[in-house]
């Protein structure tokens, strides 16, 4: 899966689950300050990413995620772990 494909999937997750317009979901957008996610939303996002990748996200790894770009990186590392 390419970075662009991951971004499109993430945009769909944000739109479907949090009502955030896809145009706002850009790599440098801060999840908490710009997209108004809270800690419960972050847990929901982690669950959706686990469903998307089929891999479990370690909570300590997800705590470092602050931007959409970080989410893309997390997905890429989960997918790489499958190879």
UniProtKB/TrEMBL annotation:
Pathway: Lipid metabolism; fatty acid biosynthesis. It holds the Pfam family PP-binding. The keyword Cell inner membrane does not apply. GO terms for molecular function: acyl carrier activity. Keywords: Cytoplasm, Fatty acid biosynthesis, Fatty acid metabolism, Lipid biosynthesis, Lipid metabolism, Phosphopantetheine, Phosphoprotein. One of its GO terms (cellular component) is cytoplasm. InterPro entries: ACP, ACP-like_sf, PP-bd_ACP. The keyword Repressor does not apply. Residues 4-79 form the Carrier domain. The modification O-(pantetheine 4'-phosphoryl)serine is found at residue 39. Its main location: cytoplasm. It is found in: Cytoplasm. SUPFAM superfamilies: ACP-like. 4'-phosphopantetheine is transferred from CoA to a specific serine of apo-ACP by AcpS. This modification is essential for activity because fatty acids are bound in thioester linkage to the sulfhydryl of the prosthetic group. NCBIfam families: PRK05350.1. Carrier of the growing fatty acid chain in fatty acid biosynthesis. Belongs to the acyl carrier protein (ACP) family. This is Acyl carrier protein.
């Amino acid at each position: 899966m390419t970075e662009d494909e991951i971004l499109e999937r993430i945009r769909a997750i944000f739109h479907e689950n949090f009502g955030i317009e896809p145009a706002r979901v850009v790599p440098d957008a801060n999840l908490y300050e710009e997209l108004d996610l809270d800690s419960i939303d972050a847990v929901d996002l982690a669950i959706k990413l686990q469903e998307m990748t089929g891999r479990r996200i370690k909570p300590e790894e997800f705590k470092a995620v602050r931007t959409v770009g970080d989410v893309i990186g997390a997905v890429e590392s989960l997918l790489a772990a499958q190879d």
